Structures are given as structure tokens and as C-alpha cells.
Amino acid sequence: MLNTDGTSALAYAFLYLTVLALWFPSKRRVPFWTFPLIISIILGYAAGRLTSMALGPLVLLYGSARILNRAGRPWLRGLSSGVLLVCGVGLGAHLFPGFHNWKVIDGALVSQDGIPFTLYLNFDKTLVGIVILGELHERIRTRAGWVQMLKSTLSRAPLVIAAVAVLSLMFQFVSFDPKIPEILPLWAWTNLLFVCVAEEGFFRGFLQKYLAELWQDLRYGQVMALLFASLAFGVAHLGGGLPYVVLASVAGLGYGWMYHVTRRIEASIITHFLLNLFHILMLTYPALVPQA
Length: 292
Prior knowledge:
- This protein is mainly α and 292 residues long.
- It has one domain (50-282).
- It is built from ten helices and two strands; from the N terminus they run ααααββαααααα.
- It has a two-stranded antiparallel ribbon.
- Helix 6 (143-170) runs antiparallel to helix 9.
- The protein is globular, with a radius of gyration of 19 Å.
- The mean pLDDT is 94.
């Protein structure tokens, strides 16, 4: 009899590997990251994490990204962008059937005064980041490139972290709560490779990037693209309430600024992760229990 938990663990292990493989040096005609992705999808089907219903949005997501990367005609770029937008939103918000994401943490009390925390390993959302970065972005390939990007990122990221942390405390969304949670290893690995890669891939690597391209002839086109993508990122967190939308929008401005200044998606991914890491280590996580 199939051990579905064991097969699920293998499926997600290969999904983690797929994200890492985006940055593996490769001169193959078929990118190296596609091989662990195919294995992950096969294992996902075997474990029941994916069903045949997932095939449609996956094909549309990948096909639209491929066309957008190669199309020269404006109408074809517009059409593929629209399909990619629908697929990205649908998969990111778990609106498409066929995905049964694995709940690995259920109602953990990370902070004594915080709401319980639940963690899913999201196959659908992660695929959005993988496809967008894999098809639409040149990733850093050299040691010198990484050093330059990290210098630019680490000198600016504290400003973003400080701004969001201060606002969070002012809104009484969190309180000061330094700790090292037991869930930290699994949380950190998943947050970086699944959450941050997916969200930055979509909001900065797709939305901000292609809006900036669309509005390049406008006087403030770059700024408008940054603001629009940041607001969209905030609205995507509407489930946490209006204060959370404001905080997420401000955070999105910071991530978008990092992407705009460095022209590197890695900069916004790392800034996003460092802010989330500061949150779980130093503040109430995920948020204070609302007062009645």
C-alpha cells in the first residue's frame, strides 16, 4: 500500500529542489529545473496532492509564460500576460481545483499572546514563482553578481524592516516578543523557497516588471508600476483585515523599491524573507489575538 505521507514528503522535497535549481548553472536547451519539477508533479499525483484537474491551470501557466518570453507582437504579449495574470491569481489564491496542499503545522502557538499558526506546503502557489522566474527572468549566475546584489540588498533591507516593524507596533498588530520557535527550521525553508519566491515572482517579477514595460513611455511609469504592484500585494492580504492590507502595501513598496533599484528579483526575495524572519524571531507571530 502506498505511503502517501512519505510520497508527499518526496514530492515536496523535489519541489524545494526545483526552486533551488532555478539558480543552478545550466547551458542545457531544456533548463535543469524542469527535471525535479516533473518528478515533483509525478510524485504529487501519486500522493494525491494533485489530481487531473490541476493539469489545465498548469499548462496555461507554463504556456503563457513561454509565449510572453518569446512573443514580439503586442497583441500576443497582451494576451499571454492576461492568461498568466489569471493563472497566477487563481493558483496563488488556491481558486483552481485539483490541488490538495499538505498541512504540516496545525494551530501552533508560536507566541503566547498570538493567534494560532497553521502552515501549508502550497503546490499551486509555488508553481507560480517557479514558472515566472524560470521563464521570464535572468537569475544571478556568478559569485560577483551575488556579492554585488547582497551588498545592495543588505544595506537597504533594514530600512524596509524598520518601517514595517514600527507600523506593526503602532497599529498594535504585534508586540515585541523575541524568541526562537521550534518550528523555525521548517518555517524558514518553506517561507524562503515557497512563499517569498512565489510572491516576489508574481508581484515584482511579473506585475511590476511588465507594467513598467507597458508604461515605459509615461513620465512616471516606473513609479506607477511600483505603486500598483504594491497595492495589489496589499489587497492580496485582505483576509488579515484593513491594517494588514496597509502593512502589506508598505512592505510591498519596500520590496518593489529593492527590485527597482537593483534590477534583481533576488533582492526583493531576500528582503521579503529577512522581514518575515525578523517578524517570527522578534515580534508576535503571526499577530496578536484581536481584542473583543
